[in-house]
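Render this sequence as a predicted structure.
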Amino acid sequence: MACFVVPTTAAMVATAVRKKVPAQYHFGKLLLMLWGATIVLIIDHLISGELVPFWPFLTAGREQVISEVLAVGGPMTLAVVAVWLIMAAMSQAAAKKQAKVQQV
């Protein structure tokens, strides 16, 4: 119903602060994952009829929307951010290892 709201909001906030994040954290990959999730979820909701091009746009009531945002959208966005954090940490570790090897 509205699980796309959380990754969309996260993508917009991340896009707004992207220039303040050092390149070593591969923030562009997080943006790609968040915007990709947003686009896929919007298409999914359009196909399933949960999102319509006229008012009120969502076919469910407020209670259903809030529960889905909390139960699906939030955990999904946290999982995307967790995957990005793991990728960034692995990249940092690989860069340190490569720097150490080049010193020897």
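Summary. Residues 5-103 form one domain. Helices lie at 5-17, 27-48, 62-103.
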